[in-house]
Amino acid sequence: VFSLVAICLVAYDYWQTRDSFPPGATIAGVGVSFLSPEEAIYKLKQYPLTQLYSSLVTLEADSQSYDFAPNQLGISILYVETVEQFYSQCHQGNYFQQLWARLNDKKLAAPLSLVVDEAILRPVLQGLAEAVKLDSKNATISYEEKTGGYNIKGENLGRQLNVNRSIVRIKLRLSNGDNN
Hints:
elongated
């Protein structure tokens, strides 16, 4: 009797998950269990980017932090790629390998695949570059007649934000799943 019940449960699980995500599957914290890939895409699109990814993205320049909403930087979600990659991951190997992994409490969670629109990001970074830019100045030496001493002011080498390098770094961090 136990064997028959176990076989029925395995068969039921197989039929429920063969074309859908298995129990406990999440993408960016959103449950997609028993959903087809198309249903998972639809469900993810119901959430705003700020809820799935981050409400603010912080860029640091010159030891200062600048906060932006993700859409202000041109960040968006690649829904189809996110879901297809996770679906493939959930259905790797044969069914019994997948079932064994789930029974051994293997977490089925996926991050988002993100992309940044350079046409939106570049002007933001250019504005930030102007905000942190300092012209370089040479050191100056001045003679203080009252004290008979010299006053030396240090050199300021200036600062510039490399916009192109920043775009490459942001894209790399997003492609690596780095949400910071």
